[in-house]
Amino acid sequence: MDTQRSAEDLTHTMAPYADNTNSQAYGRPLSMTSVMSDAANNLLIDLPLLLAIFRRRIGLFAGGLLTILALVTLITFQLTPKYVAEATVLIDTRKKQSVDISAIYSGVTADSATVDTEVELISSRVIAERVTEKMSLYDDPEFNPTLREPTGLRGFIKGLFPSQVTESLDAAAEQRIAREKTVNNVMSNLSVERAGLTYLIAIRFESEDQQKAAAVVNAFAEQYLVRQLDAKFDYIRRSRSHLSDRTDELQEDVRIAEAAVEQYREENGLFESQGSSLTEQQISDINSQLITQRAALAERRARLSSVKGQLDNGSGADSISEVLNSPVIGALRAQQSEMARRKSELAIKYGERHPEILKVNREEEDLLAQIDTEIARIVSSLESEVNIARDRVISLESSLAGKRTELADNNRALVRLRELERQAEASRTIYESFLDAFKESNEQEALTESDAEIVSAAVIPTSPAFPNKILNILLGLVLGAGVGAMLVTLAEIFDNGLRTAEDIERMLSLPLVTAIPTLSPGLLSGTTTPVVPQDYLVDKPLSSFAEAYRTVRSSILLEAGARSKPKVLALTSALSSEGKTTSARCLGRICAMSGDKVIVIDCDARRRTLSDAMPEAKIGLMEVLTGTAQLKDAVRKDSKTNLHVLPIAGAQQDVVDVFGSNAFDSLISKLKTKYDLIILDTAPVTAVADTRTIINSADSTLLIVRWRSTSSKIARSAATILSKLPTPVHGAVLTQVDAKSQTQYGYEGSAAYYSSYKKYYHD
Prior knowledge:
Layout: H1 7-10, H2 18-25, H3 32-40, H4 47-56, H5 58-78, E1 83-91, H6 112-122, H7 125-134, H8 152-160, H9 171-188, E2 190-194, E3 200-207, H10 210-268, E4 272-273, E5 276-277, H11 278-312, H12 321-324, H13 327-349, H14 355-447, E6 452-456, H15 469-494, H16 501-508, E7 512-517, H17 533-539, H18 544-562, E8 568-573, H19 580-593, E9 598-602, H20 609-612, H21 621-626, H22 631-634, E10 636-637, E11 644-646, H23 662-674, E12 677-681, H24 690-696, E13 700-706, H25 712-723, E14 729-737, H26 739-742, H27 754-757
Helix pairs in contact: 2-18, 5-15, 7-9, 7-10, 10-14, 11-14, 13-14, 17-19, 18-19
């Protein structure tokens, strides 16, 4: 067996901890910042770690799951089966009225809010009471709690706590309460919901009886339609009565308003013909006549002026158009022409002085006088026509002015007339609308239909809807798994022991030097007899147990590479029974087996666990420090190795504070000259003040932590105390680690790979 293996050969078992250990050894102490940084890098779900936790707590998880599953299964098979029947109602969006009824009679609008309102109406207490009454559910023990005897747990509880409420109530109150409870039970078994965003409403009812479930569902659908029709009929009747009374009142208002209009029209002479007043028509006629007469006057004046102008200018009568147009003048001119012809003939026949010619001349003169007289008459006639036309125009203008004055008076009176007419028209319009509504209401009752229809009546269900045994068992599995997971979580939360290197680093801000496997009988030792660790280490120097202490020695040697080699190493813990004394003895033996000159000093003056293994010692540390004995007489040699031990001899109870004395310092200084390594086995640092004094005399400190036993709180307290002391803390050592169980806490550390590493060991 090669016990002189170098530190480099021993470090391979600490590979998972090499970074943290080496950082300490080379002057880079592990800080809380680096620990938190490492934790931040591991925020993702660690599936192997979760699997390890599950494997570790599989019994607790299975217990919770099976318990809940058994309870759910038991309850499921004891529940009374219930059947659910379903009917479907459609809200009709089509307008089926044959007459155009006013909005107050219109059916429901098919918007989303209205359909949701109809859903609530179907599930309302009004419909439930109608159905309960129609189906005689008040006499059904399934819904009326007063008609059924409680059984099972309910009956047992009722027997223990009989109700005293109904004793003070009269029979009527009890019956009313029973009916209300029955309706409540009916409503609790009813479910009404809209089918998505459609106009279909599904009505479901649950009952212990198949036929009853279908009958009650159909009754709810029918009563919903009946309730719609009843509401419409009731509203129509009330509206018709109101319309009848209001129509009579409005008819009288119209009669009074129209009479007032006619009376005012008669009083003010505001008669009309063909849509306009008589005055307006007269003014229009006068205006027409006036325009005509003014035109005629202008024409006559023009003719008269033309005739007079021609006469004054000496123009011949033959050039005057009025003369030319006169039939009298024309006849006279014809006679004049005939007479000129005769005169010409007579002049040729008789000569100018002939009596016949003279007679013709006299006739011609007389004819000319007649023509002049006729021309004078024509001019006089034109003047007369002008005067007559002017008089007519003046008369018409006078009449027009009078009518305009009369029209102005009429217009002022028309303001009030129009007001009266508007009032009469408004009254007439309201009266006609109410009269139409009244007539339509008489037709509406016969034409009224429900706004919904039953598109699918309920059929008798063939299989129970409750309980769904398969679903319940699956839910039981899910619930059981949830409870199991919760139990595992709670167990992990309350399991506050330190287990892994990550726990040590996170909780104590210290690196984990190594994990010491436990030597429980039948596990690693291969025997059922108690195992003495320090002897096992000697007997099996190539075991994983021995290799762990070589890791501690290797770590100390690596630390020596960065600083001066530590001569004095103090081992302490937070509590007793952490494996501190065993670790001191085993570390001393493994170092002695490696060729180092080592001494272990028992500094736990109260318990003296190390010294109890040497009852034959009569002289020890106290005697050396008090000067009553020599060091060489007090030191004992280990029976199996070259390890030296300085015990505390005897059964002294009164311990003098000697660890802070010069004698103790002198002893340590003396031992440094003789030994390569001095191991101080101290008392727990949280319990004994002397331990802090002893640690001040050491070059380095190891904190011993028991796997899963030492709570993180007390271990953190010990680490805090050590951090305040001047002596550096080399790290922490986990003791009594179950190598196989450790794998269930994650996959870091050599213990997790024990199955892979064990070929290097000879346990």
